[in-house]
Amino acid sequence: MSLVIDVQNVSKHFGKATAVNQVSFGVEKGQIFGLLGPNGAGKTTTIRMINHILNPDTGSISILGEAVSPKSQERIGYLPEERGLYKKMKVFDQLMYLAQLKGLSQTAAKTAIEFWLDRFEASSWKKKEVSELSKGMSQKIQFIATVAEEPHSDTLPPDSRLGMSEPSPWFQGWYCLLGVLAFVTTLAWCLYS
């Protein structure tokens, strides 16, 4: 089976500090893959290199057989720990804006956003400003922004703590994750141990 994500002998240094040291792994189509480790182990740096946000000092990374590049970024939905939502923008308007930046038509974006808002029982948040949302609610909106472009992406590597901190049943998060897997061919996940 061909690899969707192929990381070979990748290293990254920041000054004298080594963040990632000769890391190699491959992720096959349909596989759920996780990066586990304590703070400072290089998980976030690795995810950022896969997403072509940072370049490795040595080694190579490819997505679907091609070296990571701005083009490969179009095939990846990325959910960083630090959320980049506009605090004064209304939830629905923001999700529409972000989905259209990823190339969805207005109709496709609206359909996808309404689907995911409903899946997260968050339809009532459409007209709220992000500043009105709790951290857990904001995480759900960022997650929706990440997956709304599906099924155009082949990989979805969210970074670090997506854990729902909003009081809601854990099974809801897993139910939504399984819903994402119905659209996505590969899922990479980064968690703190």
Describe this structure in words.
The chain has 193 residues and is of the alpha/beta class. Helices cover 32% and strands 24% of the residues. The chain has six helices and seven strands; from the N terminus they run βββαββααααβαβ. A hairpin with a 2-residue loop joins strand 1 and strand 2 (17-28). Helix 3 packs across helix 4 and helix 3 (91-101) runs parallel beside helix 5 (135-147). The longest helix is centred in the middle third of the chain and has 14 residues, at 106-119. It is globular. The two termini are 30 Å apart. Mean pLDDT is 76; it is low at 151-185.
Distance between the termini: 30 Å
> What's the arrangement of strands in the largest beta sheet?
2-1-4-5
Tell how many strands the DSSP assignment holds.
7
Instruction: Determine Rg (CA atoms, Å).
Output: 17 Å
Q: SS-based structural class? A: alpha/beta
Strand content: 15-25%
Proportion in helices: 25-40%
Q: Helical element count?
A: 6
H-E order = EEEHEEHHHHEHE
Question: What descriptive keywords fit this protein?
Answer:
193 residues, alpha/beta, four-stranded antiparallel sheet, 6 helices
Describe the SSE topology.
Elements: E1 3-14, E2 17-28, E3 32-37, H1 43-50, E4 58-63, E5 66-67, H2 70-73, H3 91-101, H4 106-119, H5 135-147, E6 155-156, H6 170-181, E7 186-192
Helix pairs in contact: 3-4, 3-5
In short:
The longest helix is centred in the middle third of the chain and has 14 residues, at 106-119. The chain has helices at 43-50, 70-73, 91-101, 106-119, 135-147, 170-181; strands at 3-14, 17-28, 32-37, 58-63, 66-67, 155-156, 186-192.
